[in-house]
């Protein structure tokens, strides 16, 4: 692991894994249906994977990408360099309010919102960043996600409930938070999407994608043993993803 801050990620390992995030990003782009000439805000732009797809498919669009991880942003700058001034990247801790200098026509997010415990703050910032009528399309981990991993962690840690940096909201709470932020035309749903991994991929996947925040709190010499223990306590090499998907429009 090469993460250097509490909010940083190992971008190289992350990008090499068999990520379902590509399909999740494809779904968000399809539902967003960008229009040439629009500027799209991306919350948690990561390595720039989804921004690159948007910019290549919609040559008249621009992207403003926000992420808290310096490693991810470095990877995104490299990946998105061919698009020149059509993309602006900013380091931002999305757990806190943020603001844009110029409002945008649309916003999207893939696999980020469950890392942010205060959705009310996030949604308010997105609403303020959007022009009236602007679209917000997102997906993230939803209620019920990672129950098998948490069950394994309870066995390994000997606790009733493991500490976790993620916030898996349900559809009812998400709709209410969007409404309070001033969004209308809201559609929200939970969709099970389990990922079956090969045994050789399970440990690096757990370490980089699932348990990264937990491992950063452990001494370096204890991390590998912890991941091995969690993997060994799982019933099968399956990540039981449940996706929270929504579309909304700023009123």
From TrEMBL:
Keywords: Methyltransferase, Transferase
UniProt cross-references to SUPFAM superfamilies, sorted A to Z: S-adenosyl-L-methionine-dependent methyltransferases
Pfam families linked to this entry: Methyltransf_25
Methyltransferase keyword on record: yes
Membrane-spanning residues: none
Superkingdom of the organism of origin: Bacteria
Record flagged with keyword Nucleotide-binding: no
Location of the Methyltransferase domain: 40-134
InterPro entries: Methyltransf_25, SAM-dependent_MTases_sf
GO molecular function: methyltransferase activity
GO biological process terms held by the UniProt record: methylation
The protein's name: Methyltransferase domain-containing protein
Organism: Raineyella antarctica
